[in-house]
């Protein structure tokens, strides 16, 4: 039986630019009418959308060079989503019930043109896996900072969406010792027990360079950096000869209440880079177009074999979405965070 289609869809809009970090009152739920589909368009019922730190940057004053459009008061939030085709316009290339991935999250329903979505395909056994940011970790560890057998790998922000995947991928690619960092002892314990980390530094519990040197007494060969700041300073300080540092994010600046979200200064001893022949490069998906398809095949295989775990938390109800953004920034969740509207 075909489900009756709704006349309207609820969505989350930014109602004012956040003063510091976003709070739930900066966002609101709006009920908006759904328009008729044009030729080739589809209506998608979103099943899950991703809650991610880049939104803080897009809402701030420092969006120069950021590869997504800034968010102003009145705009609907957006981001990776996975949903089911609920209606098709004339000539659309998918069928009712097909699963598609797209960038119009933060709403119950999305009207999408042919270039606005991709069929989910069958490579991944779990629809939420399409929202994993593990592709960036995999790209960093295969393109920018390749892991060699026995390497010591440091993953900063290891309990986050990307970090929890990065540590496991590093191990699967041959790392001998995997060290992480996180914001709480409870998350550190989970990383060690459930995700194979050998040691985890809890930020804020002492001088970071000292703590990292204790966790990696022989130094570090590969860094996947999600955080920047003092953690990057420390990683450079103890990096071994020939170390490879991949910069994926900069949570220390991006999620700092006293910054605008688009910058993250760190002090680095550049002479260490010279004398130890260390490479350091930022990871941008656009520079590595072959990664997503390769990652999807590999991720699907690892999930089916049970050699990788994909930690995520599903928060039901679009009404909860404004609070979940704040919770994600405050570190109250583990791994990937999605809303099921
Ligand atoms: N280059 C790329 O292609 C690419 C792709 C994906 C993501 N990224 C970037 O990579 C970074 C991680 O992204 P993600 O989606 O995996 O996010 P995430 O790590 O899941 O972000 C949420 C986590 O940030 C941590 N956090 C909050 N405030 C912090 C602070 N002041 N210092 C350090 N950590 C803090 C908290 O973890 P704890 O409780 O453990 O501290 C929180 O759980 C972001 O900068 C993101 O923009 C880049």
TrEMBL record:
Keywords: Oxidoreductase. One of its GO terms (molecular function) is oxidoreductase activity, acting on the CH-CH group of donors, NAD or NADP as acceptor. SUPFAM superfamilies: GroES-like, NAD(P)-binding Rossmann-fold domains. It comes from the Bacteria. InterPro entries: ADH-like_C, ADH_N_2, ER, GroES-like_sf, MDR_fam, NAD(P)-bd_dom_sf. Signal peptide: none annotated. Residues 22-339 form the Enoyl reductase (ER) domain. PANTHER family: PROSTAGLANDIN REDUCTASE, PROSTAGLANDIN REDUCTASE 1. This is NADP-dependent oxidoreductase. It comes from Embleya scabrispora. The lineage of its organism: Bacteria, Bacillati, Actinomycetota, Actinomycetes, Kitasatosporales.
